[in-house]
Amino acid sequence: MQALDWIHTELNALDCQALRRPQRTRSGPQTAEVAVAGRSLLNFASNDYLGLAAHPSVVEAACRAAHAEGVGAGASPLVTGRGEELARLEAQLAEFEGCQAALVFPSGYAANVGCIAALAGEGDCIYSDALNHASIIDGCRLSRAKVQVYPHGDCSRLADLLADGRRYRRRLIVTDGLFSMDGDLAPLSELGRLAAEHDAMLLVDEAHATGVFGVRGRGAAEALDAEAAVHVRIGTLSKALGAAGGFVCGPAHLIEWLRHAARSYMFSTALPGPVCAAARAALDLVAAEPHRRQTLLARAAEVRRQLISQGWHLGSSVSQIIPLLFGDAQRAVDASRHLAEQGLLVPAIRPPSVPQGGSRLRISLSFAHTPEMLDRLLAACRPLVAQAASASV
Ligand SMILES: *Cc1c(COP(=O)(O)O)cnc(C)c1O
């Protein structure tokens, strides 16, 4: 096995930079309290924002569909993989999002990679926010289009780049709606204006905002009243919706094109029926129980207020995602370990998930957390503020 010896050197290098990640196994369902390596921890690590991943009606829907359709979908949707459950989910997603059509992918990652590479290619230019999710970055790379990365949220820089980009055949602006590691919103109204002015497409990845933001829970574009300006909407079923899979919504001809051009859709087995049924039950709950997202965002605002009064710099978070900036990877890891000793699971996020020098704890709040759990979190964070990055990174 000498041919693979170089890997030991690489792994040792990760150890030296505090970038090695332990392999932990959770037991039991994904809820506000999880058992990790035999210990019960309050879970501030999960993206199950509405507490639906183990909700009885979501679980029940999956079980019923498993009995009706079995588990594996058997093939790509283009072959025989699109069962009735998947067809119903696509129809329900289009209706929920107020779009003509929707297409479901095996994951949010696959939705971004496949959709971006189907919309831009050689001779085109993609304009991508510097803090976009890895799946957007990978979609950009795969597309073979020219990629211009603009500084986070910087519309004036983007305007300059677009003005310079008239020679490209097509232009595509891509952004997270709610940024996954900072918890802030993209300036979608301004991005929409720029897209219109420069004849560009605007794609928004709502992975962390679907189910949480907006009057109906459609995401950041709904919350910012910018839906009409967004041409391509991407979401995931794996976060607030508590299931798995990704989707793209938009006009019918967009969806028809993706069925023929998005390779992560065409060459991957369809999402299983039980997962589709679970996501549909979750969408029903998002519509029927708006208090889940309203309570979550109200509690998140209160947690942020209290953290700021403890002396934390929270960057521009306006959401259930709250970063505690440490800068240095080792300090973030030490803080995470300290919180684990107090019974709290708050992951340290390090490069490459965040830029160099941007290591942090990422607090992820859920409707499933009780006020008492949030009090425990706040009490445990207070003594750590002395180790925090002094200026916001
Ligand atoms: C998690 C995430 C994805 C990927 O979604 P999965 O369904 O987990 O593959 C895509 N975009 C963003 C912004 C994300 O945070």
Structural description of this entry:
With 393 residues, this protein is of the alpha/beta class. The chain has 15 helices and 14 strands. A seven-stranded mixed β-sheet has the order 4-10-9-8-7-5-6, sandwiched between helices. Helix 4 runs parallel beside helix 12 (273-288) and helix 13 (291-310) packs parallel to helix 15 (371-381). The longest helix has 20 residues, at 291-310. The radius of gyration is 21 Å and the shape is globular. The model has no long low-confidence stretch (mean pLDDT 96). The structure holds pyridoxal-5'-phosphate. Residues 107-109, 112, 133, 135, 176, 180, 205, 207-208, 236, 238, 246 line the site of pyridoxal-5'-phosphate.
Characterize the largest beta sheet: strand count, sense, and whether it forms a barrel: 7 strands, mixed
Record the strand order, biggest sheet. Answer: 4-10-9-8-7-5-6
- Helix/strand/pairing class, anyone? alpha/beta
Percentage of residues assigned to helices: 40-55%
Q: Report strand %.
A: 15-25%
Q: Figure out the total of helices.
A: 15
Task: Please provide the ordered H/E string of secondary-structure elements.
Answer: HEEEHHHEHEHEHEHEHEEHHHHEHEEEH
DSSP E strands, number: 14
The rough form would be described as globular
Strand and helix map with partners:
Blueprint: H1 6-16, E1 26-27, E2 33-36, E3 39-43, H2 56-69, H3 77-81, H4 84-97, E4 101-105, H5 108-119, E5 125-129, H6 134-143, E6 146-150, H7 155-163, E7 171-176, H8 188-197, E8 201-205, H9 220-223, E9 232-236, E10 246-250, H10 252-261, H11 263-266, H12 273-288, H13 291-310, E11 321-327, H14 329-341, E12 344-345, E13 348-349, E14 359-364, H15 371-381
Parallel strand pairs: 3-12, 5-6, 5-7, 7-8, 8-9
Antiparallel strand pairs: 1-2, 2-3, 4-10, 9-10, 11-14, 13-14
Helix pairs in contact: 2-12, 4-12, 5-6, 13-15
The protein binds pyridoxal-5'-phosphate.
The site of pyridoxal-5'-phosphate has 14 residues, from α5.
